[in-house]
Amino acid sequence: MAAPVVDLVDVARTFDATPPVEALKSTTLAINEGEYVAIVGPSGSGKSTLLHILGLLDTPTDGTYILDGIDTSVLSERQRAGVRGSRIGFVFQSFHLLNHRTTVENVVLAELYSTASRSDRRRRAIEALEQVGLGHRLDAYPTTLSGGERQRVAVARALVGRPSLLLADEPTGNLDSTTTQSILDMFAELNGAGITLAVITHDPEVARRAQRRLSIRDGVVTSE
Amino acid sequence: MTLIDPAGGDVPGTGSPDPYYGALPDPLMVDGSSTRSRLAVKDLLAEVVISLTARPARTLLTAMGTVLGVAALVATLGLARTSGNQIVSRFDELEATQVSVQPQSRGFGGDNSRQTSFIPFDADDRLGRLNGVVAAGTISDVDVGGRLARSVPVNDPLGQNEYQIPVLAASGGLFDAVRADVLTGRVFDAGHDQRGDAVAVLGPGAARRLNITQVANAPTIFVGDEALVVVGVLADVDRKPELLNAITIPNELAKDRFGLQVPAEVLIETEIGAAELIGAQAPTALHPNDPDRLRASVPPSPTRTRSAVADDLNVLFLVLGGISLIVGALGIANVTLVSVLERTSEIGLRRALGATRRHIATQFLAESAALGLLAGIIGTSLGILTVVLVSANRVWTPVLDPILPLAAPLMGVVIGLVAGTYPAWKASSLEPIAALRGAE
């Protein structure tokens, strides 16, 4: 059995305050390659904290996080940024597309901070957009796209770097139920093609589609 | 649906190792360029161009203050150079080589020839020894006491043949000092002067009135009862035009017959560039005991002229240009800061995509520097255009320091960098988490 993509050992995150806030209590968690995991919890449960730690956007105050075999606790800021850019693909609730750039330019941005050549970037961006079914809207601006299409662009941007982990934070939070279903269908297909997925949501409907469900409450992660 | 695969190999799965990602990287390999976050200069520049062109009107308005400041500075410096050059090229060579020495006037209405003067009769010799003097001579009005001049002593009741013609006394060197052209005959020299010869040189106006057209047979004229032999007639002089209508006689003769006491003025022709020096030395050479009694008039020096122009005109405009540069820098700083706030979610996104704090700071700094460069280039162009238009209007030759068109845009870059420092720091210190949530 290969080493897990995500390996959290006794990871905790405490915020400095009086009294200190234990947003994430000591957690041990592994996500294997090709898994589709949903992390469910109400707001304030600590799921965003877990997301940020998984996405290397925040560092745990305790414990070890090994991503793809790399011990992230010993990395410099620049190395963390590099690992984040190359091994993690983010999908956000509010898409975070740049309105002044076309669809393909938005996707190309994913590899701006890597060594990929410009022509490779563009080719891969187009491939990623075709993969999410937007090959016909390469030069459209985000403002002319529907919510579902925008989220597809965001997914394409997350896929283009060939990440080890696709991390989605409430990916359907801004979408209607029909669009939600199509995005979830797409996630299932991506997972079927071997992508490791972690979806953070408060919506049980979204969580139901995953292979494995974890719930988080008051900073404690439990398996369902 | 197929998965993208840049390497063209197998899709990574739970099965066989993928050629791309199959071998899990050793933690040390993180140091390798493949994982380390980087931002190529070319990519940075492309990002800057996209950012600045996304809102062209806003970009231009932001740059406007700096544009005006740079334009004002370039135009001021360019016009100063142009007008300074104009003054020098128009500078009169005749003026520049002339020094005249006169007694220090004492009170009002003093007649110089009557006044106790300190100019010696041997001024030519004394000044001729100074390095830089080309020619020197004295000139004085002679008071002939109302005596009239005539060419022949005939009594013709029908025609006027006696005239009131001014008489001047000169030393031999004067004619060189005024650059006299001789129409016919010759001018008198130091020998005539020393011997007290009764000779005269006529200006063309005086010669016409006295009917003297040639001097081969040594015509005689009379001033009162004094007979003078005309040795020459002048064609023209460059200085002291009063010579043209006068009878000029040697000093010694004037002293002897007309009561001239001292010369009234010394006129000196100097070499180019020596005027100021000679002006300082001449009073001492002429009257070593008390040089302060003499006053030398020298032409204004070209350097002084230029600096006077620069002082008068430029300080104000340089100050105005500097102020608008400061205002321009504040404008860039302000707008960049606002755009950092507006682009909070973009900054968070970039961090999520692998940008380091340094990358974010670099991008914002580069954007404001590019804005400064743009402003510098536009401002320099406007400034040069102003210089050219003003020059065309005044029929001047525009002159620019070649450094200026290069230094001015650079100044814009510096302004942009200074203005962008705080916003860039602000942008780089945003937490990606907060930045990503802030956009919702």
In short:
With 224 residues, chain A is an alpha/beta fold. Chain A has helices at 47-54, 77-87, 103-108, 118-131, 147-159, 177-192, 204-208; strands spanning 6-15, 21-31, 36-40, 62-67, 70-71, 88-91, 165-169, 197-201, 212-217, 220-223.
Please give a structural write-up:
The complex is a heterodimer of chains A (224) and B (440). Chain A has helices at 47-54, 77-87, 103-108, 118-131, 147-159, 177-192, 204-208, and strands at residues 6-15, 21-31, 36-40, 62-67, 70-71, 88-91, 165-169, 197-201, 212-217, 220-223. In chain A, the strands form 2 sheets. In chain A, strands 6-7-8-3-9-10 form a 6-stranded mixed β-sheet. Chain A has a 4-stranded antiparallel β-sheet with strand order 2-1-4-5, with helices on one face. Chain A is α/β, with parallel strands linked by helices and 224 residues long. Chain A contains 7 helices and 10 strands. In chain A, helix 5 runs parallel beside helix 6 (177-192). Chain A has a single domain, classed as Rossmann fold. Chain B folds into 2 domains: 39-85 and 304-438, no CATH class; 98-298, no CATH class. Helix content of chain B is 49%, strand content 14%. Chain B has 14 helices and 12 strands. In chain B, helix 2 (56-90) crosses helix 12 (357-394) and helix 10 runs parallel beside helix 13. Chains A and B meet through strand 5, helix 2, helix 4 and helix 6 of A and helix 1, helix 11, helix 12 and helix 14 of B.
